[in-house]
Specification:
Blueprint: H1 6-21, E1 27-30, H2 36-44, E2 50-53, H3 56-64, E3 70-77, E4 81-82, H4 86-93, E5 96-104, E6 108-111, E7 120-123, H5 125-130, H6 132-138, E8 141-144, H7 148-158, E9 163-167, H8 169-175, E10 178-182, E11 191-198, E12 211-219, H9 225-235, E13 240-246, E14 256-262, H10 268-280, E15 281-291
Parallel strand pairs: 1-2, 1-3, 7-8, 7-9
Antiparallel strand pairs: 3-4, 3-11, 5-11, 6-9, 6-10, 12-14, 12-15, 13-14
Helix pairs in contact: 9-10
Amino acid sequence: MSSYPPRAETIVATMTAAAAADPGAAVAFQGAPGAYSHQAVRELFPDAPALPCASFEDAIEAVQTGRAGRAVIPIENSLHGRVADMHFLLPESGLAIVAEHFVRVRHCLMGTGAVADLRQVLSHPQALGQTRLRMRAMGIEQVNYFDTAAAAAQVAGDGNPAVGAIASRLAAELYGLTVFAEGVEDAEHNTTRFVVLQTDAVPLPAPGVLAMTSLNFEVRNVPAALFKSLGGFATNGINITKLESYIRDGSFAAAEFYAEIVGSPEQPAVQLALEELRFHTKWVRIIGTYPCVRERTA
């Protein structure tokens, strides 16, 4: 984590030591302390030590190697769609999705002086894009930074009242910054969906509990392959809430798909749909079955 500003490095060292003292309870996340992923960890596991990691790969590896018992990873955002590379990393990780969690992203404008002093604001390009209209109306220049929380740490360390940051309220608290305004995003429905990963799958949701199942598969390179693969879900009344394709290893011969369905593999209708899916595909991998936190409706 040496690429982070000194103010963040100090907190990272403390958090890493706490996680090392109880690795089974530790929860890994990507980003600097105060990132929205850190906020998600606090909401899900308020008493667990949080382990900051430089990348998604590092967070996943922390669980694989036993430095953390779980990882909380963003998988999609309501404004920007899926998080890049996650559909490659999740299936290959060998970890299971055991829960989902939604975080309403409320960007805060923060700094070391007064709001009238601000001339520039640092943040991740996505956060800047989500606050572009508000910052333009305030006459504040936006400057790209690699991480929202790290931007807050940089501003705190520099102490320049003319330069602020856009990050979470948690970041402002950790780095001692003044929050000038909360909810400066241009769209009110900015929400990020996170998943919880761990080595072993948890028991399937109890009967009567709405469940989600995440899976990926590769279709055969023949006409109507995808149509035939998904037919079993339609005939058995299984709702597919997400279906995304991606190309692996530069091959355009056949696509792999990431899908999410409503239901559990223990349900007879889902079993029949999965049997038909397996018949028409090269392989199918179940990544996890977990309680549905937010019902998928039109």
